[in-house]
Amino acid sequence: MAPRITVVEDEEALSILLRYNLEAEGYAVDTIARGDEADLRLKEQVPDLLLLDWMLPGLSGVELCRRLRARPETERLPIIMLTARGEESERVRGLSTGADDYVVKPFSTPELMARVRAMLRRVKPERISSQLVAGDIDLDRETHRVRRAGRELKLGPTEFKLLEFLMQSPGRVFSREQLLDGVWGRDIYVDERTVDVHVGRLRKAVNRGRQRDPIRTVRGAGYALDETFTAAAPRASSVRPEAV
Ligand code: CA
Fold first, then answer.
1. What are the DNA-binding region positions (predicted)?
2. How many CB atoms lie within 10 A of CB 172?
3. What spacing in Å lies between the alpha carbon of 151 and ligand 1's midpoint?
4. pLDDT digit string (tens) for 192-201?
5. Which domains does the chain have, with CATH numbers?
6. Cβ distance 61 to 81 under 8 Å?
7. How far is the CA of 40 from the centre of ligand 1 (A)?
């Protein structure tokens, strides 16, 4: 069963983005826009992890967090707080209310996904999905194996990371700079053309010259995992390209 994540966020666009990305990672997602409503719903059903906005109508995220910690059923529920810039000085207070972690908006989605994974791995190591699926491609993070239509592909370490990065956010266009940050890391100096070279190698390995290309080149913008490719996947029901 997929880990269940509840997102309490009143900013609709952000809530949709989070749902889209979390579902693409294979989680079951509930979204709630009000603090008081979340308080009620979390009495009925406890998820595996909670993403909780700081400022909410009805009941603040801070107060909700306190209440959750006071109830035995949610005492140990993993909570990641989402705080706006400027509220950062409040972060100590946030953690002292019982949140396990926090991220500051605007945050990078891959980074948040990594935190979610890390936290679930800590609390429910058996339930974290190590599989990413797009179309007929599946990638296993644990074993570092990639298969296309069941046949194993040989990818270099950079190509693997690049594919993993793109598969985490299907449809989203990443600039070369964002790909450098996300795949190579900020500390290493690499020319932006390096990205093109590795995308070329990745394509070659994945397509073998004749299969459908899952990577979309967006002129002047960058690269994306083609969401129509993903939509053709068996997992299509959990991915909603129209949501972003
Ligand atoms: Ca808010």
1. 129-227
2. 21
3. 45
4. 899 999 999 9
5. 4-127 (3.40.50.2300), 131-238 (1.10.10.10)
6. yes
7. 18
